[in-house]
């Protein structure tokens, strides 16, 4: 079976079938629908290699992530693939594990497979590697920051909005002793989240305690170690905000091992709102950064540079919103209810 069979069954020309498969926008939508129905009915699988030769494009979008052990990234990959397939693209995924050498290998894989565009959902990419993509005019999309050059789009995450909601939520519960466990400070996103936290404390009239600002590494083990440092300090805060959910889950684990309870002894807030946050014990209050929204914005940004479609936004920056999701890991500071009962007496 080939496109001649499809053309005969759909009562159209071979050229129309070819243009339909290659998603050429000039094809009449009604005719394209009929062609796709015949393709489905006859269980025909288009030859993607032939398609690439005809169109001059691979119809593959590259996605580079930092790691795949953090559930945030598999969820992002799933959303990216879903949106890409919806628009006729396949995806090629690479993970850097925060290693510059791995990043170089990731870029090489993308170039060897002749991807049409690359979404770089990681940090620390070196300028020479960017040049390899830029010289070949490969469209790119970054999170937070990226080079100011043609063909580059940026997804701007509004960290301040969600973190401000989180700090205000804790302040409304009566917390004034609030700690923060950041991610690696070499990452722009970690610094942005810490700055948003400090600015939000100031808005609420709360003085930060430098001893309660700890650098983590965005892993469960890093959260456990940071919480141990707070416990060793003796003077405990009443709440901890974390730069991501894996750190927060590490805090929950350390509290459990220390015989302390969340939120009775300590309120905890994460960031990302990964799916597992709903089923931790207790369910984790977290600041949501939608993986699907990031994935859709990334694919849209790349398609805007690859396709001549009027319905696609031709802009350099795309805004990503963050919002607080309240669950059961936050409550009043320890002793609050006892103090209230004393006050009533």
TrEMBL record:
Recorded hits in Pfam families, A to Z, give:
LacI, Peripla_BP_3
The UniProt record lists the keyword rRNA-binding: no
The family database entries (SUPFAM superfamilies) matched by this protein are listed as:
lambda repressor-like DNA-binding domains, Periplasmic binding protein-like I
Alphabetic keyword roster: DNA-binding, Transcription, Transcription regulation
InterPro entries referenced in this protein's UniProt entry, alphabetically: HTH_LacI (IPR000843), LacI/GalR-like_sensor (IPR046335), Lambda_DNA-bd_dom_sf (IPR010982), Peripla_BP_I (IPR028082)
Q: Which GO terms describe its molecular function?
A: DNA-binding transcription factor activity; transcription cis-regulatory region binding
Superkingdom per UniProt:
Bacteria
Domain HTH lacI-type, residue spans: 1-55
Q: Give a yes or no for keyword Transcription regulation in this entry.
A: yes
- What protein does this entry describe? Maltose operon transcriptional repressor MalR, LacI family
Annotated organism of origin: Granulicella sibirica
């Amino acid at each position: 079976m080939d496109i001649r069979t499809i053309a005969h069954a759909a009562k159209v020309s071979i050229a129309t079938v070819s243009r339909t498969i290659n998603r050429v926008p000039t094809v009449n939508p009604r005719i394209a629908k009929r062609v796709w129905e015949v393709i489905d009915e006859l269980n025909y699988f288009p030859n993607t290699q032939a398609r690439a030769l005809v169109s001059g494009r691979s119809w593959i979008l590259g996605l580079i992530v930092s790691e795949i052990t953090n559930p945030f990234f598999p969820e992002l990959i799933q959303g990216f693939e879903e949106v890409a397939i919806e628009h006729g693209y396949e995806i090629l995924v690479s993970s850097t594990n925060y290693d510059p050498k791995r990043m170089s290998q990731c870029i090489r894989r993308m170039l060897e497979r002749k991807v049409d565009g690359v979404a770089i959902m990681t940090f620390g990419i070196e300028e020479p590697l960017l040049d390899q993509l830029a010289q070949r005019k490969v469209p790119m999309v970054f999170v937070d920051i990226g080079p100011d050059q043609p063909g580059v789009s940026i997804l701007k995450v509004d960290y301040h909005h969600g973190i401000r909601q989180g700090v205000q939520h804790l302040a409304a519960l009566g917390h004034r002793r609030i700690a923060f466990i950041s991610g690696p400070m070499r990452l722009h996103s970690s610094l942005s989240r810490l700055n948003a936290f400090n600015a939000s404390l100031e808005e609420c009239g709360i003085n930060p305690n430098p001893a309660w600002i700890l650098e983590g590494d965005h892993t469960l083990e890093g959260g456990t170690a940071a919480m141990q440092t707070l416990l060793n300090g003796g003077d405990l805060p009443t709440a901890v905000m974390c730069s991501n959910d894996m750190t927060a889950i590490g805090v929950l684990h350390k509290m459990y091992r220390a015989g302390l309870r969340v939120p009775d002894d300590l309120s905890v807030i994460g960031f990302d709102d990964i799916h597992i946050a709903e089923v931790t014990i207790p369910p984790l209050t977290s600041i949501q950064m939608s993986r699907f929204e990031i994935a859709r914005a990334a694919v849209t940004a790349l398609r805007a540079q690859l396709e001549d479609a009027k319905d696609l936004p031709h802009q350099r920056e795309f805004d990503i919103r963050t919002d607080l999701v309240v669950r059961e890991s936050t409550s009043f500071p320890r002793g609050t209810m006892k103090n209230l009962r004393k006050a009533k007496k």
